[in-house]
Amino acid sequence: MTAEQAATTQRWPTGTPILWRYRANGAAHFHICRPVTVVQDTAELLAVWMAPGTLCVRPELADGTPLHREPLATRYTKPRRAAFTPWFGMGVLKLARPAEPWSVWLFWERGWRFKNFYVNLEEPRLRWPGGVDSEDHFLDLEVWPDGSWEWRDEDEFAEAQRAGLMPAAQAGRVRDAGRRAVEAVQTWGSPFADGWEGWRPDPAWPVPALPEDWDRPPSGVCPHRADGAP
């Protein structure tokens, strides 16, 4: 069953391929696209699996320089283009609760040794027949199995504000969302305590393909946004 076929129902069945996309900050076009497979889709949680080898879209500088190799001072001001690269290493399990301004990602090392959680601060996702769309908010949390945590990408968060990609009011809301995420970590509730570390993908699932129209405008959008969310 395709994502478009599944969209006639309220929820995507397990095994449905969909797209997980991010708009470019301060723009309307998409610059990140990751084909994923639905693990679970309920009123409380959307869980998806991004398999190793998945062909993804990510931004790079127009001259082909990877973003992480560009000095921070010019990383957000130089022209960019879309790059198409496979996801290397182990896959990623993404967990997102409706209206929450972050998603929680699980990473493993080879041999399925659990490594860590990663809280990606982002715009609450908009559902459409082909998947979910969001906008990354730069600031993140890395969370270890023992419950310890640390901020990630604070330098990128600050530079994005200096570059005009995030107004001060929005940055304040993102900081508030980050503090709420920290509280969720410290209380160690769902999804951290739900045992997802022991989850494994169905070996029969194929690696979802990246469609040629991966950046098409969403249709039939169903917003899931909390009041006051960034």
From TrEMBL:
Record keywords: Hydrolase
InterPro entries: DUF402, FomD-like_sf, Ntdp-like
Any Pfam family the entry gives: DUF402
Region ranges (Disordered): 203-230
Domain of life, per lineage: Bacteria
DUF402 domain segment(s): 70-189
Name of the protein in its database record: DUF402 domain-containing protein
